[in-house]
């Protein structure tokens, strides 16, 4: 279970997150939606250990991980699929996947997990010797997801998984996320493409200007007027 | 202003020294210090203020020495022999700088390193014999003109940097050092400013080399292209306080005097000490002696 | 015939140039740190081999089994004492500071070597030193040939390590994108330490091989740093075998200059080639990244 209380994150003098509180219970699929610059990526980066909070607490299964290094966070079972994938473009698909299993814990199950990832993404198996940079956008997202899964996470963080992808591809990615969720994985998805993700998740938080301004279950929020106006209006409609 | 006052007092003291004492060892030490000041200040101009690390500074020192020595021994009056030395050094600097500055910082550094070695080896092959002042000059050798020449040069080098720093040119140069992209965005041509700093730096180094050629009775021409001159310049600038006007002066005085003291005991020992000191300064006290001094003053003023 | 003979010798020394460059290429590629004291490290490795041979008659190739780990440890110490502070800065400052630190280290190591062992030239002269393989009318010194093969073998081993091993892959990933690597759970600091130590060990091995077939003295440090830099600029970064090939090219170029311009300008040719490539094509002849 991930518990965040009073989280404050700053870039120098600029406060990016003001007193964020949120919870992700085991096996939940939660989304964070909000406009550009709201602080969604900052939140994920802080959970992953890339950024250190100025104040507040992040607890994972009753252990405080607020100031832990990215390495420790992965060892704890939280993996991030970064915004823009951040694949190792000059390395092969296979290499990227194997790198995902760097930690001691993941190394033990590497072979088995690799087979599972290939089963989930047969296209990756076909292209395993190819350089990651030569894959299509959708394949890259699959690789990024597969790479994160190699770390044997219990909580998967996804930063804008639908960014730059065609609608059909987004559908298939979301289908896979739903499948992972059914199998017991906790997921925290940050998305601007609100429409696609809200239909899928149990709960969602709305983050605006570094503050949580709303929370509710996916379908309720989807129908909410505020959301409709802000994010689903003709000007704000995403890639759909 | 206080610095200017201190500087004037120091310069006056140095200027008066030959009138007070006849001890040639002190006067020679003086020349060494003044040469060191010019050498350090010339590197500091490019390295400290423009932020461009020149690892082949010796090339320009050597070129100045070569041209000046050749002309002067050949009969040209010294004053006329010094300026071609500085000019040739400057031209070679621009030769490397123009292409290298378009690339990343490391390329300029290793490019100048390569250039210095090319010159050292080539000169070593072309002029392997020791260069000695002709007999006529030797009998009339007098330390005084050398002393005052190098003292003047030291003051000029400090003056050039002191003038440059607050000037519009100097501000542009420092802006480029801080953030090249930002500087370009505000209309400051990075290339032009870097080249200007380079030209001044190499010209001063060439002058220092010329003074060396005038001062030393005999030396191997390739020695003036040896990396030791670059080491000295870099060490003195950093230990004294790189990127300041008075840092290299402090560094030069400190370095030359300590070198004299230590060289008595063990030959290479002072290099090891200075090398380690230098690395510590770069990592932990980038402002060198200047920063150390201001921190001590802060500590003292907090107590009282 | 003279040309062919010189070319053979150039090829043989070129392998060592490549090995020297590979170590520097590794540390620069991974840490973005240009350690200009690389040649001094090579020199230290050479002295290690020399003393093990002179004091205890250990065969120089065998002594590398001791020299390589010792240099690896030295690399760890240097990283811990100096370069770990350099890597904390952003890339531009990082490179600048690494040049300065490397420069300072060059000074210290050079002076230390002179103090400890004097400026005299040393060479390892084994019983089999003079043996020569005759190919047609050409003489191929066995020792240098073995060194070339050895160098190639080391690079192959390193290549396999980087390609297949867990930490080797981690090094490559960190070199490409250290932030993404950190997100995989890769400890970036330890990876840097490993890469730097490996680079230093490579320098030491190259130095050992140099002491076997050529001579060493404290002044070879700067010389070999420049060789490594020339090869890196010629071959670009990113490929160990590219460095090896670049080294061979340099060796051959030097050989040709010896034949056409005479011995004293051997070093100069390489440096001029270096400056030309630097100005015209800084990413090198084979390189991807600059």
Task: Outline the structure in words.
The complex is a heterotrimer of chains A (240), B (304) and C (290). The longest helix of chain A has 16 residues. Chain A has eleven helices and ten strands. Chain A has two domains: 154 residues, P-loop containing nucleotide triphosphate hydrolases (Rossmann fold, 3-Layer(aba) Sandwich), CATH 3.40.50; 59 residues, no CATH class. In chain A, strand 4 and strand 5 form a beta hairpin. Chain A is α/β, with parallel strands linked by helices and 240 residues long. Chain B has one domain: ABC transporter involved in vitamin B12 uptake, BtuC (Orthogonal Bundle), CATH 1.10.3470. Chain B has 14 helices and two strands. Chain B is globular, with a radius of gyration of 19 Å. Chain C has a single domain, classed as ABC transporter involved in vitamin B12 uptake, BtuC (Orthogonal Bundle), CATH 1.10.3470. Chain C has a two-stranded antiparallel ribbon with strand order 1-2. In chain C, a hairpin with a 2-residue loop joins strand 1 and strand 2. Chain C is globular and about 60 Å long. The interface between B and C is large, with 41 and 39 residues.
Descriptive keywords:
heterotrimer, B: 304 residues, mainly alpha, ABC transporter involved in vitamin B12 uptake, BtuC, 2 strands, 1% strand, C: ABC transporter involved in vitamin B12 uptake, BtuC, 11 helices
C-alpha geometry of chain A: globular
Largest sheet data of chain A: 6 strands, mixed
The figure for the number of domains of chain C is: 1
Order of adjacent strands in the largest pleated sheet of chain A? 6-7-8-3-9-10
What level of helicity do the residues of chain A show? 25-40%
Classify the fold: give the CATH topology of chain C.
ABC transporter involved in vitamin B12 uptake, BtuC
Assigned CATH class of the largest domain in chain A: Alpha Beta
**What oligomerization state is this entry in?**
heterotrimer
Binned strand content of chain C: under 5%
Low-confidence segments of chain C, given as residue ranges, are none
H and E order of chain A: EEEHEEHEHHHHHEHEHEEHH
The computed structural class of chain C is: mainly alpha
Number of strands of chain C: 2
CATH superfamily of the largest domain in chain A, by name, is: P-loop containing nucleotide triphosphate hydrolases
Helix content of chain C: over 70%
Mean pLDDT of chain C: 90
**CATH level-two architecture of chain C:** Orthogonal Bundle
List low-confidence stretches of chain A. 235-240
| Count of separate DSSP helical elements of chain C | 11
- Give the tally of β-strands of chain A: 10
Largest sheet of chain C: 2 strands, antiparallel
């Amino acid at each position: 279970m991930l518990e965040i209380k009073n989280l404050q994150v700053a870039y120098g003098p600029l406060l990016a997150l003001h007193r964020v509180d949120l919870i992700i219970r085991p096996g939940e699929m939660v989304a964070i939606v909000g406009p550009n610059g709201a602080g969604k990526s900052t939140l994920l980066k802080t959970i992953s250990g890339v950024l250190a909070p100025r104040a507040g607490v992040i607890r994972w299964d009753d252990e405080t991980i607020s100031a832990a290094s990215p390495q420790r966070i992965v060892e704890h079972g939280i993996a991030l699929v970064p915004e823009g994938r951040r694949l190792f473009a000059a390395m092969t698909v296979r290499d990227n996947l194997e790198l995902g299993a760097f930690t001691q814990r993941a190394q033990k199950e590497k072979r088995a997990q690799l087979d599972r990832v290939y089963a989930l993404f047969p296209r990756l198996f076909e292209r395993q010797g190819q350089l990651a940079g030569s894959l299509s956008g959708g394949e890259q997202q699959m690789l990024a997801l597969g790479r994160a899964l190699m770390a044997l996470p219990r909580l998967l963080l996804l930063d804008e998984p639908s960014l730059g992808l065609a609608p059909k591809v987004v559908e298939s990615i979301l289908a896979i996320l739903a499948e992972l969720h059914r199998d017991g994985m906790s997921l925290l998805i940050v998305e601007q493409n609100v429409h696609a993700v809200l239909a899928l998740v149990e709960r969602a938080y709305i983050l605006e200007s570094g503050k949580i301004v709303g929370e509710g279950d996916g379908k309720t929020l989807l129908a909410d007027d505020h959301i409709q106006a802000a994010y689903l209006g003709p000007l704000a409609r995403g890639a759909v | 202003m206080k610095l200017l006052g201190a500087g004037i007092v120091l310069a006056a003291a140095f200027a008066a020294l030959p009138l007070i004492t006849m001890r040639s060892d002190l006067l020679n030490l003086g020349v060494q210090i003044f040469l060191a000041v010019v050498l350090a200040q010339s590197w500091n101009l490019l390295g400290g203020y423009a932020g461009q690390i020149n690892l082949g500074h010796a090339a320009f020192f050597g070129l100045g020495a070569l041209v000046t020595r050749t002309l002067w021994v050949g009969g040209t009056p010294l004053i006329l022999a010094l300026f071609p030395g500085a000019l040739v050094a400057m031209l070679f600097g621009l030769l490397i700088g123009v292409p290298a500055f378009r690339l990343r910082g490391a390329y300029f550094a290793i490019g100048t390193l390569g250039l210095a070695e090319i010159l050292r080896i080539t000169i070593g092959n072309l002029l392997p014999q020791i260069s000695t002042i002709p007999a006529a000059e030797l009998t009339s050798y007098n330390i005084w003109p050398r002393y005052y020449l190098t003292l003047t040069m030291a003051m000029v080098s400090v003056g050039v940097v002191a003038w440059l720093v607050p000037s519009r040119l100097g501000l542009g140069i420092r802006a480029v050092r801080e953030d090249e992209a930002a500087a370009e965005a505000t209309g400051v041509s990075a290339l032009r400013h870097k080249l200007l700093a380079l030209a001044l730096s190499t010209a001063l180094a060439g002058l220092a080399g010329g003074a060396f050629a005038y001062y030393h009775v005999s030396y191997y021409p390739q020695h003036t292209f040896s990396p030791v001159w670059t080491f000295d310049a870099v060490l003195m600038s950093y230990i004294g306080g790189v990127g300041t006007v008075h840092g290299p002066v402090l560094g030069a005085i400190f370095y030359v005097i300590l070198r004299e003291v230590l060289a008595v005991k063990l030959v290479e020992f002072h290099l090891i000490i200075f090398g380690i000191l230098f690395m510590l300064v770069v990592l932990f006290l980038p402002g060198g002696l200047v920063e150390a001094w201001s921190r001590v003053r802060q500590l003292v003023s907090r107590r009282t | 015939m003279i040309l062919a003979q010189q070319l053979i010798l150039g090829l043989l020394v070129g392998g060592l140039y490549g090995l020297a460059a590979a170590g520097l290429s590794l540390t620069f590629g991974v840490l973005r740190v240009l350690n200009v004291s690389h040649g001094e490290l090579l020199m230290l490795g050479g002295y290690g081999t020399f003393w093990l041979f002179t004091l205890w008659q250990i065969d120089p190739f065998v002594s590398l089994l001791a020299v390589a780990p010792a240099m690896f440890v030295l690399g760890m110490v240097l990283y811990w004492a100096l370069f770990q502070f350099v890597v904390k800065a952003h890339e531009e400052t990082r490179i600048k500071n690494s040049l300065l630190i490397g420069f300072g280290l060059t000074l210290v190591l050079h002076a230390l070597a002179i103090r400890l062992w004097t400026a005299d030239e040393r060479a390892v002269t084994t019983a089999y030193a003079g043996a020569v393989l005759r190919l047609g009318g050409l003489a191929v010194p066995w020792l240098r040939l073995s060194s070339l093969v050895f160098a190639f073998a080391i690079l192959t081993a390193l290549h396999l390590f980087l390609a297949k091993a867990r930490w080797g892959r981690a090094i490559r990933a960190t070199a490409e994108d250290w932030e993404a690597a950190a997100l995989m759970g890769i400890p970036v600091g330890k990876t840097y330490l490993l890469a730097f130590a490996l680079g230093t060990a490579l320098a030491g091995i190259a130095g050992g091989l140099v002491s076997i077939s050529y001579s060493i003295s404290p002044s070879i440090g700067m010389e070999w740093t420049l060789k490594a830099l020339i090869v890196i600029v010629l071959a670009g970064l990113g490929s160990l075998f590219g460095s090896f090939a670049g080294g061979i090219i340099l060796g051959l170029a030097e050989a040709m200059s010896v034949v056409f311009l005479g011995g004293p300008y051997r070093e100069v040719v390489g440096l001029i080639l270096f400056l030309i490539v630097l100005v015209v094509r800084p990413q090198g002849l084979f390189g991807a990244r600059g």
